[in-house]
Amino acid sequence: MSQFSEEIRKRRTFAIISHPDAGKTTLTEKLLLFGGAIHVAGAVKSNKIKKTATSDWMEIEKQRGISVATSVMGFNYDDYKINILDTPGHQDFAEDTFRTLTAVDSVIIVVDIAKGVEAQTRKLMEVCRMRKTPVIVFVNKLDRDGKDPFDLLDEIEEELQINVRPLSWPIDMGQRFKGVYNIFEEKLNLYTPSKQFVTENIEFKDINSPELENHIGAPLAVKLRSDIELIEGVYPEFDVNTYLAGDVAPVFFGSALNNFGVKELLDCFVRIAPSPRPVQAIERKVEPEEDTFSGFVFKIHANMDPNHRSCIAFVKVCSGRFERNANYKHIRHGKMMRFSSPTAFMAQKKEVLDEAFAGDIVGLPDTGNFKIGDSLTAGEDLHFKGLPSFSPEMFKYIENDDPMKTKQLNKGIDQLMDEGVAQLFINQFNGRKIIGTVGQLQFEVIQYRLLHEYGAQCRWDPISLYKACWIESDNAQVLENFKKRKVQYMAVDREGRDVFLADSGYVLMMAQNDFPQIKFHFTSEF
Ligand code: GDP
């Protein structure tokens, strides 16, 4: 294999997702410790924006700063190059997380043994299912009491709508937690409370051997044997291809805080998780090992310093090799660009990189050239798909509160929308601008940033809307009729596409009933 192919095949680019507090930050930190990327516990800052902090602007700014540093964490482990993409925990930033999921090749889901599957996890899993992203589940906090593991597996299958296959199995839990049997490697891992890294790891191919009693005592040995027998009877044998196809999720148990079960997870992960996968562009499918570079922007991060309105565009390299100072084509602008200081993200450091390979994330310092979804290539016209906007859930009219600053306001709105902070619709009836978000916090962030970064003052006026959906029809006449009938409820998005603003679920249902020839879409990509 050429060195080029080797570089790409050793990459593992993934995200950890969970409901807040399940242990995502803790797990990330332990993984980084194994990679030698950090040396002390507590080094990874959680970029959680807590609900209580919604009015604490300094806090949000600080958090935004932290999340630049921890947006992508790269490290080497064994012969692998691992890129962890961080996702904001706060649900008001769910859209950010959705987009990040378009840039990963696989996902690890953290589930709390006591709380089971929670709302946020369910929502994020929908995106993984849509994209057929391979998923591994890590059931966390086994040092605490929680649900029966079999019940939890049923719950995961039902709630996340994916088949599961345990690859490790807990031996009791809480105060009595003894460890796990690693089905994947046929090893017995014994747990010693709060002794990090001192896991006893015993090769144990035959759990029917009486040796088991010596390690965990007779009652637990009997229980473990019957559990494993049940597992082997109920769940089909693990087949890595079903995992790679996104049909079966292997499950591991452990305790991130105690660094227990994490290495087993990581060792299995690097072996089975996919290297960079092909990416679908509108024109064709792009293979990671193609010679020439291509990539797309999945995230834009504004800089902390409001006086220098610069930002960082995060580019996922889809194919080939990205090189510093090479000429690349910005497809939407149709112009060539060169980047003299692209950054790599290694653990918490940002450093200038000379080259990056398919699977890597490159940070490009930018002053407003990029927007979310932009493609960058060595010259070929490629448009990458798969960065949908979701139908927002909260709406407000945005109004100018300082007539002297109209230009600044418009520019600010434009750039914030490019960053993907929220969505803008223009009401076709009254010409007013409507901002749609998934959470209240985004309105506060927009107002704050317009003032501090653009010197513009905005005011929010209420509008009572239930949903905005994109509409289309094969029958132009029907579409025209609909738009005439619903003239007060019609808007266009930034691409000029028709959007129907339904003010209640009932109105939407009636519209769908009355106009069967019109398609109503709830994501922007259809
Ligand atoms: P995140 O919101 O998903 O990033 O969760 P954190 O990693 O910040 O963890 C939330 C809380 O759970 C913290 O107080 C952690 O110390 C705690 N925690 C994480 N893993 C474990 C575990 O394995 N056992 C116990 N008992 N607590 C844990």
Automatic annotation (TrEMBL):
GO cellular component terms attached to this protein's record: cytosol
Binding site for GTP: 18-25, 86-90, 140-143
Coiled-coil region list: none
GO MF, any single term: GTP binding
A Pfam family reported for this protein in Swiss-Prot or TrEMBL: RF3_C
UniProt subcellular location: Cytoplasm
Repressor recorded as keyword: no
InterPro entries for this protein: EF-G-like_DII, EFG_III/V, G_TR_CS, P-loop_NTPase, PrfC, RF3_C, RF3_dom_3_sf, RF3_GTP-bd
SUPFAM superfamilies per UniProt: EF-G C-terminal domain-like (SSF54980), P-loop containing nucleoside triphosphate hydrolases (SSF52540), Translation proteins (SSF50447)
Keyword annotations: Cytoplasm, GTP-binding, Nucleotide-binding, Protein biosynthesis
Family according to the record: Belongs to the TRAFAC class translation factor GTPase superfamily. Classic translation factor GTPase family. PrfC subfamily.
PANTHER family (alphabetical): PEPTIDE CHAIN RELEASE FACTOR RF3
Function according to Swiss-Prot or TrEMBL: Increases the formation of ribosomal termination complexes and stimulates activities of RF-1 and RF-2. It binds guanine nucleotides and has strong preference for UGA stop codons. It may interact directly with the ribosome. The stimulation of RF-1 and RF-2 is significantly reduced by GTP and GDP, but not by GMP.
NCBIfam families, alphabetized: prfC (TIGR00503), PRK00741.1 (NF001964), small_GTP (TIGR00231)
Descriptive protein name: Peptide chain release factor 3
Species this chain originates from: Macellibacteroides fermentans
Gene designation per UniProt: prfC
